[in-house]
Automatic annotation (TrEMBL):
GO terms for biological process: negative regulation of DNA-templated transcription. InterPro entries: Bact_HTH_transcr_reg (IPR050679), Chorismate_lyase_/UTRA_dom_sf (IPR028978), Tscrpt_reg_HTH_GntR (IPR000524), UTRA (IPR011663), WH-like_DNA-bd_sf (IPR036388), WH_DNA-bd_sf (IPR036390). GO terms for molecular function: DNA binding; DNA-binding transcription factor activity. Residues 1-67 form the HTH gntR-type domain. Residues 238-248 have a biased composition (Low complexity). Keywords: DNA-binding, Transcription, Transcription regulation. It comes from Saccharopolyspora karakumensis. Residues 227-256 are annotated as: Disordered. This is GntR family transcriptional regulator.
Amino acid sequence: MHRVLASELRQRIRSGEIAVGESLPSESQLCQEFSVSRGPIRQALAALRDEGLIGGGKGKRPVVLDAVPSQPFESFLSFTRRAEITGHVPGQQLQEIALRRPEPAIAAALQLEPDALAVQLLRLRLLDGRPAMLERMTYREQIGRSLLDADLDAGSIYAHLTEQGVDLHAARHTFDAVAADPTDARLLEVGEGAPLLRERRVTTDSAGTPLECSEDRYRPDVASVTVTNTRSRRTDVTRSGPAWTGAAPPGPGLRP
């Protein structure tokens, strides 16, 4: 129930129904509106505080601080988690997966020997049933082998690997724009040569060993990147768009 409540309040904030600077209804008002006890209400409000959407508490009515929820580390790696945080339905369609020798640039990023094998996959990601992003992912063989037998149409690869005990500790993100190639155009349903937002990521374990090298290409009507600088806090990176919002600390590859 608290997830349903948080999703509803998040949508009201995102749509502007409750604007930045305005107070949310009191706990008693929310209890009456949703016909629930204070427990789920307080859990929902705690989730919105963790996302940086609201402030207040300790007897003060919550005030809206931002219309874009921040993202914890795991949601910046997981498309599924980001979609759930922002109130959308994620989906995925595996196109191919194989154990092969990666191209030299990817092998170098993963610090692999030239003849080393890696697990590579191509997967289409959906938001509310619409093509949103195309994943090209490469994993060190010992990390990716479990994916060969997994149902990758069922959900998050990040969640699967975490359950397997893989140490996904840090990630470096680089953003730029590229033209859609024939594969992008066909799967993302855009014109060949259309501009796409590209996110390249290298994920390492706690010892600094690269485990994953990926390239994600987003439709520009689904995701964008906004950089906000302030004097009193670290830079935030915000994905936003008509069907997507989220924020997270930037990787070293992104500059204001």
